[in-house]
Amino acid sequence: MNRSRLLPVATALVALGALSACAAPAPSTEPSSSEPVTITFSSYSYGAQGTMGEGMQALLDAFADEHPEITVEPQSVPTADVLTKARTDVAAGSAPDVVQLGYSKMAEAFETLPVQSLEQLAGDEWDGHVEGINEALVQTGENDGETAALPFTVSVPALFYNADLFRAAGLDPERPPTTIDEVRAAAEAIVANGTNGAYFAIADASKSDYLTQSVINSAGGSVVSKSGDVAVDSPEAVEALGAVQALVQDGLMPAVGVEDALANFSSGQLGMFVSSTAVAGNLAQAAEGAFELRSGGFPSFGASEARPTNSGAGLIVLSTDPAVQRASWEFVKFLTSAEGYSIITEQIGYLPMRADLAEDPAFLQEYFENNDLLVPSLEQLADVAPYLAFPGENANQAVVTLQDDAVEPIVLRGADPQSTLEQVAERIREQTDQ
């Protein structure tokens, strides 16, 4: 790998814009105690197949080695159900103490869950701990003027491609597509050679809209306007989803779910797979000895610059018990430490949220010298658009409506982009009281 490509990383990681959210106050904590304590951890990564689950287990094991006085009881919860289950558990008096919560659900969680202020839990440790963590994503976790969520498993979408299929189709693997038109042209060549062309993992089974936002952003639009209005029916959104739909209609993208497309790519039968860098570890395992796996940045749409948004999750604390809060902070502190972020990057494929790790010989320098799949995404961070949430207590339901009633029907089932987005936009406006 060309080491000079990593030099912009430190700047890029702190160059993202920021969002404001809201938080519930929590009592300040005293220094941690050595008394044994048990905490519960609701996680969609725990128990997952492949590198995702293996990486999470490695984090839990490393924390247990450092903190034998704290027992973490992990709870495996599907991504789409984390917020709903947390609300149910809170109502039943059995709330999880720490939650790995997707950014598409964060705004609604701040409105409907007893989310604690991590700043108050950390006390005097706060400033020293967050120094060096991606500033924009720390600010994304703000609630009532204090930080209630820290970035944990975070990524941006990338274009993964099979270099062997590129060569077989007469394409140059040294020049991956950078625009939707180039993706289309490459897919045409690959399909003509007998395999599937491209796949955008936009109809996300986890009901997350990070890739939807990335596509719309990269066409010059946004799901929420600068004034806070729902904008999923803008001309840019119609154009963006229409471009992805056209890939399906023209036989260049299979009309299947994400898991089937992932399996197709992993078996060497799909040329390009546009998805979160969180799948990088699993893809690397599948490609080893089978085909040459490479990656490129997220493509642009039309005349606009590529502006992918972040996906993944932050960590929140719900416990109101002081002893459990202290232990929960120790857990969150470890997961977002240099060691924790290094494990997340090396074993799963998420991006490191501490800028200096990619250049630190004690942590990720050697990893990035030998693994370049994440480099395009690191380099693209300067252009990343922070994740935008719909307003109000029904923000997550609005995302589900967008994904289920607009994105999937348009992209995979041929629904008319303009009329479908107009109808869904009106429903979302009703859900968010606009």
TrEMBL record:
Its main location: other. Pfam families: SBP_bac_1. It is found in: Cell envelope. Keywords: Signal, Transport. InterPro entries: Bact_solute-bd_prot1, SBP. Residues 1-23 form the signal peptide. Gene3D superfamilies: Periplasmic binding protein-like II. Belongs to the bacterial solute-binding protein 1 family. This is ABC transporter substrate-binding protein. It comes from Brevibacterium picturae. The lineage of its organism: Bacteria, Bacillati, Actinomycetota, Actinomycetes, Micrococcales.
